[in-house]
């Protein structure tokens, strides 16, 4: 009888769990294990209370959990079983030392590699799943190959191309699957092990193989290009407000050019999430490291425009509300960095709320998926007396003077704004940072409306 193949993910977060769950769905003959040293996180995965919100993930997990998908905090045991190990741990930006606030912190990655080295007594295929700087695989291989058993490992780069809110769809119907490995005597075997997983459901033409360096750099560059598009269109939204142009029309017109395409051309209060900001800064650091100052400054400007967009949005709010929001009640619609996720990492809402709170206002914050404790924690440096987390969007608007939309949750389109207007203080303002609402209709109701790149404050 053929031995079952064990495939594990070190890291049970936004990358590791959706990846293993979809793998388990399409590869029922293999055993998949998500392992994490956070016992509370594992307990929640083993319960009916999923720790993250991701559309369409829950039914997949319900169908495969305890059949061929398992969750555990016993890292040593999981590693000993594993034939293939995906490393899907967080890779935040360094906060101190050389490269602080730009370079990637690989300490979690290194810890995982050392744990594999110290526990394993046989060859395994090791896969970089997290986004890492170019050259990380070589560093990882040096750690792994320093074992006392004389094992020589293969390290494969198989970066994730998942967007929160569409992670399951991105896995089920990927634009491409990238697999990179450098030359070694066992390279073909290692590559075949990863190819075998994806070939269960991904068309052959969607699978790209390359060297590990190109794979690592492709992921970093892809995120940087997407972030650059957001900053590019946001820079034009500022020009629209000065000239009377309409950013929504301009985005549509630009997107009709097949050389450009329509995606990531929606003006907003800025990009957020765990990837774009971190990966662009890492690219800046790499360019500086290799003495390419002009290239570094080009990518640094992407971050600068993102910061500029958030700051000018706050300034427009304060200016429109007669240059002071002190002691005034304002409603925040949306706190996650994008719709269809509860993730608040690098959310523009955090920066904007912090700036408004510094001005002395009182914020009533509503988000359908972000827990209250996450919101309070994100704004912990500000007095709790200024923050009220609401569980109902209508309640959050009661006696408020302004609604500020920071996340493009679809439900915000369907609210009864006539009802809301009647419960607010007048004059009542709406500041739409996501191009969610019909501004002509809202003005007819009585709102003073401001939309990024659409109309000047009135």
- The CATH class of the largest domain is Alpha Beta
Fraction in beta strands:
5-15%
Indicate how many domains the architecture comprises.
2
**Number of E strands:** 14
What class do helices, strands and sheet pairing give? alpha/beta
Name the CATH superfamily classification of the largest domain. NAD(P)-binding Rossmann-like Domain
Number of helices: 17
The CA-CA distance between the termini, in Å, is 75 Å
The CATH topology of the largest domain corresponds to: Rossmann fold
CATH architecture of the largest domain: 3-Layer(aba) Sandwich
Helical percent range? 40-55%
Bulk shape: globular
Which strand order spans the largest sheet, edge to edge or round the barrel?
Answer: 3-2-1-4-5-6
List its salient traits.
alpha/beta, six-stranded parallel beta sheet, Rossmann fold, 458 residues, 2 domains
Structure description:
- Helix 8 links the parallel strand 7 and strand 8.
- A 6-stranded parallel beta sheet has the order 3-2-1-4-5-6, with helices on both faces. Strands 11-10-9-12-13-14 form a 6-stranded parallel beta sheet, sandwiched between helices.
- The protein folds into 2 domains: 205 residues, NAD(P)-binding Rossmann-like Domain (Rossmann fold, 3-Layer(aba) Sandwich); 248 residues, 3-Layer(aba) Sandwich (Rossmann fold), CATH 3.40.50.720.
- The protein is 42% helix and 13% strand.
- It starts with 5 loop residues before the first strand and ends in a 7-residue tail after the last strand.
- It has 17 helices and 14 strands.
- With 458 residues, the protein is an alpha/beta fold.
């Amino acid at each position: 009888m053929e031995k079952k193949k064990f495939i594990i993910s070190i890291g049970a977060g936004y990358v590791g769990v959706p990846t293993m769950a979809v793998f388990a769905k399409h590869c029922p003959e293999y055993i998949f294990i998500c392992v994490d040293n956070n016992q509370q996180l594992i307990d929640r995965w083993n319960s009916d209370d999923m720790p993250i919100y991701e559309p369409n993930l829950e039914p997949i997990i319900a169908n495969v959990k305890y059949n061929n998908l398992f969750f555990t905090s016993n890292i040593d045991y999981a590693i000993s079983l594993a034939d293939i190990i995906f490393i899907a741990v967080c890779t935040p930006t360094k906060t101190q030392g050389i490269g602080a606030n730009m370079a990637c912190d690989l300490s979690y990655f290194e810890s995982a590699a050392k744990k594999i080295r110290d526990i394993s007594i046989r060859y395994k295929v090791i896969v970089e799943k997290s986004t890492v700087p170019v050259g990380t695989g070589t560093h990882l291989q040096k750690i792994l190959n320093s074992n006392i058993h004389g094992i020589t490992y293969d390290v494969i780069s198989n970066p994730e191309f998942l967007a929160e809110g569409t992670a399951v769809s991105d896995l089920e119907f990927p634009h491409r699957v990238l697999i990179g490995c450098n030359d070694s005597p066992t390279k073909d075997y290692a590559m075949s092990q990863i190819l075998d997983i994806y070939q269960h459901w991904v068309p052959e033409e969607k699978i790209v193989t390359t060297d590990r360096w190109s794979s690592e750099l492709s992921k970093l560059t892809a995120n940087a290009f997407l972030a650059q598009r957001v900053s590019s269109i946001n820079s034009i939204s500022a020009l629209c407000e000065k000239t009377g142009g309409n950013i929504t029309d301009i985005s549509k017109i630009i997107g009709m050019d097949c050389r450009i395409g329509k995606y990531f051309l929606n003006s907003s209060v800025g990009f957020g999430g765990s990837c774009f900001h971190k990966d662009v800064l890492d690219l800046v650091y790499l360019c500086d490291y290799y003495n390419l100052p002009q290239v570094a400054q080009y990518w640094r400007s992407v971050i600068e425009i993102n910061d500029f967009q958030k700051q000018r949005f706050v300034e427009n709010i304060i200016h429109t509300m007669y240059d002071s929001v002190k002691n005034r009640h304002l409603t925040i619609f949306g706190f996650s960095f994008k719709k269809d996720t509860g993730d608040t990492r690098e959310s523009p809402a955090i920066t904007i709320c912090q700036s408004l709170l510094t001005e002395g206002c009182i914020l009533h914050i509503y988000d359908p998926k972000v827990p209250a404790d996450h919101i309070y924690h994100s704004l912990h440096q500000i007095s709790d007396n200024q923050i009220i987390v609401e569980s109902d969007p209508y309640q959050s608007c009661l006696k408020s003077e302004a609604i500020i939309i920071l996340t493009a949750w679809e439900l915000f389109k369907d609210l009864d704004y006539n009802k809301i207007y009647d419960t607010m203080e007048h004059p009542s303002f709406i500041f739409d940072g996501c191009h969610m609402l019909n501004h002509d209709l809202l003005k007819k109701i009585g709102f003073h409306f401001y939309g990024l790149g659409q109309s000047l404050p009135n």
